[in-house]
Design goal:
single chain; mainly alpha; 11 helices; globular
C-alpha cells in the first residue's frame, strides 16, 4: 500500500504541474459560492465577538489580581480566531466535495481536463483566499484592540498569523480526506464533527486534570494518578495529529522565544496537511476510477 500511495503521490504532483488551468477553473467555481461568502462573514463576525470577550476577560483578571497570565494578551484571541475560522473552512470543503459527488458534477469535471489533484487544490486555494481576508479583519481587530488598551502588535503575533496558514491548510486537507473517503455529505459531516469534538474533548480533559492540585500523599492507586497518566498519553497522541495542538505548541514556543520548537511544529503541521491532501487525492482517484 505504501508503494502504491508513493506512486500516486508522484502522479498527483505531476497532475498539479499540468493541471494549473483546470485548477484555476475549480478555484473560481469555489470562490463564487454565495453560501461560502455569507457563511465566512457570519463566522468572522462571531470570531471577533468571541475574541473581544476573551480579551476583556483577561483584562478583568489582570485588574482584579494584578497578574498578567500571558506575555501577549492578543495571542489567545488569535488562537481562538484561527481555530474557529479553520473549522468552518474545513467543513465547507467537506460539503463542497461531497456535494459535487452527490450531484454528479464531479464525474463530469473529472471526465475533462480536471484531475483529482487539481480539483482538490482549487478548493484549498479558494479556501485560503477566504481565510486571507478573514485574517485581515482579525489583524484589523488586533490593531484596534492594541490601540485601545495601549499595547503593541508584537513580531511574535505577526509570525503566528503567518504560521496560521499551515494550520488552516492542514484542517482543510483533513476535511478533503474525510470527503474522499466517505463521498456522502452527512456521513462526512458527522465524521468531521466527531474528530473535531474528540480533539476538543481531549484537550479540555487534559487541562482540567492538569488543574487539579497533586496531593502529597498521592500513590499509584490514586484515581487521579491514573487519569493523569492516561491524559498524558492522549495529549502526546493529540500533539502528533492535531493541527490545533500544534498551533498551541507554536504559541507556547514563541512565548519562551524557542524558535527551533516553533519551526519544528510548523513543519510538522505542513507535513500533516500535505499527507492528508495526497491521501485524499489518492482515495478520490481510486473511488472515481
Amino acid at each position: 500500500m505504501s508503494t502504491e500511495f508513493s506512486n500516486s503521490a508522484f502522479r498527483s504532483f505531476a497532475d498539479l504541474a499540468i493541471g494549473m488551468r483546470p485548477m484555476k477553473a475549480v478555484f473560481r467555481r469555489y470562490t463564487r459560492l454565495s453560501s461560502l461568502q455569507i457563511g465566512t462573514l457570519i463566522v468572522v463576525g462571531i470570531v471577533l465577538l468571541a475574541a473581544t470577550a476573551v480579551l476583556q476577560g483577561d483584562l478583568e483578571f489582570l485588574e482584579r489580581n494584578a497578574i498578567l497570565v500571558t506575555t501577549d494578551p492578543l495571542q489567545t484571541p488569535l488562537v481562538l480566531s484561527v481555530g474557529m475560522i479553520s473549522l468552518f473552512l474545513g467543513l465547507s470543503a467537506v460539503i463542497g466535495v461531497t456535494s459535487e459527488v452527490e450531484n454528479g458534477t464531479l464525474a463530469v469535471l473529472l471526465s475533462g481536463p480536471v484531475t483529482t489533484s487539481s480539483f482538490l487544490a482549487g478548493i484549498v486555494l479558494g479556501s485560503l483566499v477566504f481565510y486571507s481576508w478573514s485574517l485581515l479583519l482579525v489583524l484589523g481587530w488586533s490593531v484596534l484592540a492594541a490601540t485601545i488598551i495601549n499595547l503593541h502588535i508584537s513580531a511574535a503575533l505577526l509570525l503566528m498569523m503567518a504560521a496560521s496558514y499551515a494550520v488552516v491548510f492542514a484542517v482543510i486537507s483533513l476535511g478533503l480526506l474525510i470527503s474522499a473517503w466517505s463521498q456522502k455529505r452527512w456521513t462526512a459531516i458527522l465524521v468531521y464533527a466527531a474528530i473535531v469534538l474528540l480533539d476538543i474533548a481531549l484537550r479540555v480533559l487534559d487541562r482540567f486534570i492538569g488543574s487539579v492540585p497533586v496531593q502529597s500523599e498521592s500513590t499509584r492507586n490514586d484515581p487521579w494518578h491514573f487519569l493523569r497518566s492516561v491524559s498524558g498519553v492522549l495529549d502526546r497522541a493529540v500533539q502528533w495529529f492535531s493541527p490545533f495542538a500544534k498551533f498551541d505548541a507554536m504559541a507556547r514556543a514563541l512565548e519562551f522565544a524557542d524558535y527551533q520548537q516553533f519551526f519544528l511544529q510548523l513543519m510538522g503541521t505542513i507535513l500533516f496537511g500535505v499527507v492528508m491532501f495526497f491521501l485524499a487525492s489518492w482515495l478520490l482517484k481510486g473511488q472515481r476510477a
